[in-house]
Amino acid sequence: MQQGTALPDGAAEGDVRPLDIATMRDSARRLLAEDAEPPMPEELSTLTLTLRGHMMLLIPAVEDATRGLPKDDIPRACALACVGEARMRLNLEPGRTLPAGIAHAQRLARSVNALCDHVENLGGEHR
User: Fold this and answer.
1) How many independent structural domains does the chain possess?
2) Whole-model pTM?
3) I need a labelling partner for 3 at 20 to 30 A (CA). Which of 37, 88, 96, 97 fits?
């Protein structure tokens, strides 16, 4: 028995929208900029979920961008290593304190930036 996945309203099968790399980088910058203010607890939760969502979109985009590359290609290996680390970070839980939650979100933000770099460097779809 095959299971289906529901598509968003108005989306047709095969309807792939380009990634909004600029917005994803802006989300990461909110935590990583040199002059970034620490987020409030309510904002941190939203930001963490946003970064996780970005990663869930970026991981398959990076994997797709590596598909045509030779198995021994160094950029391919680097991109797939980044995907592995991003998947590992998605499985981690933030700490219970605000500083631990911020540190967790910063690690997610660094993964978002790295995945965006790989999408751009490998010529993946984005806008």
Assistant:
1) 1
2) 0.83
3) 88
